[in-house]
Design goal:
The complex is a heterodimer of chains A (256) and B (333). Chain A contains nine helices and eleven strands. Chain A has 256 residues and is α/β, with parallel strands linked by helices. Chain A has a six-stranded mixed β-sheet, sandwiched between helices. In chain A, strands 1, 2, 3, 5 and 6 form a five-stranded antiparallel β-sheet that branches. In chain A, a hairpin with a 2-residue loop joins β5 and β6. In chain A, α3 packs across α4 and α3 runs parallel beside α5. The model of chain A has no long low-confidence stretch (mean pLDDT 88). Chain B is mainly alpha-helical. Chain B has one domain. Helices cover 75% and strands 1% of the residues of chain B. A two-stranded antiparallel ribbon of chain B has the order 1-2. The N terminus of chain B is likely disordered. The chains are: A alpha/beta (256), B mainly alpha (333). Chains A and B meet through α2 and α3 of A and α8, α9 and α10 of B.
């Protein structure tokens, strides 16, 4: 089953330097179609840098990024979004003075190439608003549709952040710590919602996460990073038994 | 992070604003019939400034960019008209408006390319510096621009020559020209309202709220800022073109940065977080300035004191404060 899946994203020898530090050191990373992958590692392991390189926020110092067999290494952020790569942010990044519904609707307008239109009322495009409503509903946020994004709770903000990225209808969705900054009680409901939406649409998700319970419960495959390189790559069971990972990551995570 | 305050909204339908706008437009149309000519001329100045401030606020209120150089685009509109009179002997107001739009598109397109890569203080300083370049050109190239003497603009003909300015200038300005300004004002307000409520307008607000995220939902930041800059400059240029026949003369003063400051002030006074704020602010500012000038030679001092008082007591501007009071009143009843 696992082997039958086609690789959606492949990085080849991806390198990023910050001064003398190898933030990402010759990383060969893959995401397969329709999988939920967890990217783990201690702080500074290079997880977010890797996502920043793939999503286009940073330019790599070496290596290649292939998405659906096309080289996107030199593509702009806009080009990568068009290709089907979307992301959320660790520190929630929303349009705080727009309502939750407007946050999602704007993203749909953008995806549909309609934001260049300055002589039509946004309100009159009912297809977009219906879709925005559906997405908010899927993320359990319909009650907050008319609330300003800056005024909803932290857990809801995390979900809205994912919903906005999801509204781009990507093929690959990077989620940078979707449960950071929320209470332990809120983590499982957030992950339940996010993974059920992702799995129901068959897209791939790569989730950066520190909470090992979340990682083992929700992912199909786990990639562990350490000091800018990939330390291990396998199913949750394989990772759980991997001595190197236990010594370098899980041990330290539990100790924290 | 500060508590978010409601910003210019996007998902509006046209019915409610029309219910407010139509009665106001009717009242404005009655002004020349019931008030003395001086009042309608003064109001015409206010409406012209309102068009300029409306354009300015597309950048400040909706895109989050504070321009300190909008006097340049106002001046480009005014000088385009004056130079069309001087070199081409044009008298048609419609041609003036077309000329002003073309000139402001050219200048703002060029200035925009330089400015929109920056935000905050860097954007403000760049717009200020570029406007001062235009001011010094108007000031120094006196054989073209008339230097500090400026250029005279005679009374234009309106509606493709149907209405000419022959005869009593005061009567022309307070009636025919007032209506001309009012019609242009209504068209500009309607157009700007559609723009800020369009998907494009939403994209600008997204850029204002969070540039990084806007980029990651596919908004090409520089491109959209540039278009906003262009639209903003053209509205202000159009205001300059309407202003110059009213004033009869254009001098480099209107390109000076102090006039940019006035545009900022009228917008903040009215409230840059609401659509109507810059309109109300421009009209009120125009009255304040006119009466302050008439009252004392130290008018700047008086105006400054009044404005400081107003901003301290009404931090969300006139419109922001009024909406809060209305909301409170509705909450009670």
């Amino acid at each position: 089953m696992e082997g039958a899946k086609i690789s959606l994203l492949i990085t080849k020898d991806l390198v990023k330097w910050f001064g003398d530090t190898h933030a990402v050191d010759h990383v060969n990373f893959t995401v397969k179609e329709s999988e939920v992958l967890a990217l783990i590692g201690s702080n500074g392991a290079g997880k977010t840098t890797l996502v920043n390189l793939i999503s286009g926020l940073f330019r790599p110092d070496g290596g290649q990024i292939l998405f659906r067999d096309a080289d996107v290494t030199k593509q702009s952020v806009h080009g990568r979004i068009k290709a089907g790569i979307a992301r959320s942010f660790q520190l929630v990044n929303l349009f705080d003075q727009l309502t939750a519904r407007d946050n999602v609707a704007l993203t749909i307008f953008s995806r549909e190439g309609k934001i260049a239109n300055l002589v039509a009322l946004a309100a009159s495009d009912s297809a977009v608003w219906d879709e925005a409503h559906e997405i908010l509903k899927a993320f359990g946020l319909e009650a907050k549709a008319r609330t300003l994004a800056g005024g909803v709770s932290q857990g809801e903000r995390k979900l809205l952040d994912v919903a906005v990225a999801y509204a781009l209808r990507p093929k690959l969705l990077f989620l940078d710590e979707p449960t950071s900054g929320v209470s332990t009680r809120e983590k499982a409901p957030i992950m339940d919602t996010v993974t059920s939406v992702v799995r129901s649409t068959g897209i791939s998700a790569a989730i950066i996460e520190h909470d090992m319970d979340v990682v083992f419960n929700y992912s199909d495959r786990i990639v562990a990073m350490h000091q800018g390189a990939i330390l291990a790559d396998g199913t949750p069971d394989e990772i759980r038994r991997n001595e190197t990972v236990i010594t370098n990551l899980i041990g330290t995570t539990e100790a924290r | 992070m500060s508590v978010p305050v409601p910003a210019p909204r996007t998902t509006a339908s046209a019915t409610r604003p029309l219910r407010i706008a139509v009665p106001i437009a009717v009242l404005l149309a009655l002004v020349p019939l019931v008030l003395p000519p001086y009042s309608s001329i003064l109001l015409a100045y206010g409406l012209v400034m309102a068009i300029g401030a409306l354009g300015f606020n597309l950048l400040l209120g909706y895109t989050g960019l504070l321009s300190f150089g909008h006097s340049a685009y106002f001046g480009v509109g005014a000088y385009a008209v004056a130079l069309m009179v001087k070199y081409l002997r044009v008298t048609s107001m419609e041609l003036f408006l077309v000329g002003a739009i073309v000139a402001s598109v050219l200048i703002t397109a060029l200035f925009g390319v330089v400015c929109v890569r920056y935000t905050r203080i860097f954007f403000g300083i760049l717009t200020l510096a570029l406007s001062q370049v235009l001011w010094s050109l108007a000031f120094k190239f006196f054989w073209v621009t008339g230097g500090t003497d400026g250029l005279r603009v005679p009374t234009p003909s309106l509606f493709a020559g149907l209405v000419t300015g022959a005869g009593d200038k005061i009567a022309f300005m307070s009636h025919a020209y007032y209506y001309y300004v009012l019609i242009t004002f209504c068209v500009c307000v309607a157009l700007m309202w559609v723009i800020v409520n369009s998907p494009f307008g939403m994209a600008l607000q997204a850029i204002r709220d969070n540039e990084t995220r806007a980029e990651f939902v596919g908004v090409q930041i520089w491109r959209y800022r540039w278009v906003a800059f262009l639209v903003s400059g053209v509205f202000t240029g159009l205001a300059g073109a309407l202003w110059v026949p009213l004033n009869g003369l254009t001098t480099p003063d209107i390109m000076h940065w102090t006039f940019s400051g006035e545009i900022v002030f009228m917008t903040v006074l009215g409230g840059f977080r609401s659509f109507a704020g810059p309109i109300i602010g421009a009209i009120v500012f125009n009255y304040l300035k006119t009466y302050a000038v008439g009252y004392t030679v130290y008018w700047q001092l008086l105006l400054g004191a009044v404005l400081v008082g107003l901003v301290l007591s009404l931090p969300t501007g006139i419109v922001g404060t009024a909406s809060r009071l209305v909301a409170r009143f509705q909450g009670r009843s």
